[in-house]
Write a structure and sequence with these properties.
heterodimer, A: alpha/beta, GMP Synthetase, Chain A, domain 3, 7 strands, 20% helix, elongated, B: Ferritin
Chain lengths: 164, 253
């Protein structure tokens, strides 16, 4: 038995991101291609951050899930270009992030290059109460991809998925 | 496969070693930073740098064609074979000096990655496209702290100025002429680093001024890390970083 490419995608839609289990690896936008090849599957993955420790766990969970579904030989290729961007996170996944307590990345451009001086915090809505009276506590949260914020209205801390 | 160009490998090694050695150095803050948020920020930035180093050294090893992978390059070379800037290996000292160093280096890295987006080496261009996004956050984070500390209390101002006075002479090395730079510029795989000096100063000086710091005058002092002649600090760093691979050769986890 072997899986077709569309069956493989179905399987991957159910593989959670190890750090943020409410969204899948496909919703995160890191699975770029799935190709049926030589009786097995070839999966192309683009890492989020260069040093993200979850990258290898993700590759392994992709292989495990596909093999468990009967895919035979699965190989995962890491592809750098084009570089991953938070724009690849699907819209439904952004809502899931918000419901999970993580403010999703804004659709606007990430930090500029010419004048990397100081971050002017945008008015970010608290994922819990919706208030925009929020302040940034730290540019880096529990993982490289998130910043740490605090809501001045409900006084709860929350994380923000930084746009890159 | 075509014959590897030694200047190309040397250029990649310089980029990779900068990221590796600063990543290792900064990771010493893990568990020791002044506040928890900064502890996490420093560890995250170290991870970004080590991830960049991994990609760069893996690519250098492939071009070299001697079967050395990124782990062998990172852990089994001796001091004189590292090509990182001396600035990257200097001890962290206090939090202020760590932030001033990051500020000076990250802004240099951003400019370098910007130029490398157009590298004739497509793998290097891909690494640049990935790394520039991370470097911009590092530059921003460090810039925030330089202003906050420089324009802070009398104590924080004094210590930040002392950090700048200590580190500034090492930045001359960023732009010193290097033979592999000429080959890089000629072959289109990367800019000569000396070309970045004016752009770098135009980015860092306004922030230092906003931080009420005095930019030191250039002196005849020279450092030579990127030529393989390092300060006394690199050997100590390597002895810790390489311990595991030297003691248990080939160990994996």
């Amino acid at each position: 038995m072997m899986l077709t490419e569309s069956q493989a995608w179905e399987v991957l839609h159910a593989v959670p991101d190890p750090e943020i289990p409410v969204i899948s690896v496909t919703e995160l936008g890191i699975v770029r291609e799935v190709l049926a090849r030589d009786g097995g599957l070839h999966v192309v993955v683009t890492p989020t951050y260069s040093g993200c420790p979850a990258t290898e766990v993700i590759s392994q969970s992709i292989v495990d899930a596909l093999v468990a579904a009967g895919a035979g030989v699965v190989e995962v290729e890491t592809r750098l270009a084009p570089a991953w961007t938070t724009d690849w996170i699907t819209e439904p996944a952004k809502e899931k992030l918000r419901a999970y307590g993580i403010a999703p990345p804004g659709g606007d451009a990430p930090v500029g290059g010419a004048q990397p001086i100081r971050f002017v915090p945008r008015k970010l809505a608290c994922p819990r109460c919706g208030s925009t009276d929020t302040t940034r506590l730290s540019q880096f949260g529990s993982t490289a991809c998130k910043a740490l914020y605090r809501c001045q209205s409900c006084l709860e801390p929350f994380e923000y998925f930084k746009p890159i | 496969m075509t014959t590897p160009n030694p200047a190309h490998i040397e250029y990649l090694t310089r980029l990779g070693d900068n990221a590796l050695i600063l990543g290792q150095r900064m990771s010493e803050w893990c568990g020791h930073a002044p506040v928890l948020e900064e502890d996490m920020a420093l560890a995250n930035m170290s991870l970004d740098l080590i991830g960049q180093a991994r990609m760069l050294l893996a690519h250098a090893g492939q071009l070299e064609g001697k079967g050395r992978d990124e782990d062998q390059l990172a852990f089994l070379r001796t001091e004189m074979h590292y090509r990182n800037l001396t600035l990257c290996e200097l001890p962290n000292a206090d939090f202020g000096r760590t932030m001033v160093r990051n500020f000076l280096f990250a802004n240099f890295q951003v400019l370098l990655w910007e130029r490398l987006l157009a590298s004739s080496d497509s793998e290097l261009a891909a690494i640049a496209a990935k790394s520039i996004k991370e470097a911009r956050y590092h530059a921003q984070h460090a810039g925030d702290w330089v202003v906050r500390l420089g324009d802070g209390t009398a104590e924080s101002h004094e210590r930040t100025q002392a950090a700048l006075d200590y580190l500034w002479p090492y930045t001359a090395e960023f732009f010193a002429a290097n033979p592999s730079d000429e080959a890089a510029a000629a072959a289109g795989f990367g800019p000569a680093w000396s070309e970045l000096e004016a752009a770098w100063e135009s980015v860092v000086v306004p922030v230092l001024t906003e931080a009420t710091l005095t930019v030191p005058a250039r002196t005849p002092f020279k450092s030579f890390g990127k030529f393989g002649r390092h300060s006394e600090h690199l050997g100590h760093l390597l002895s810790e970083m390489q311990y595991m691979q030297r003691t248990y050769p080939g160990a994996q986890w």
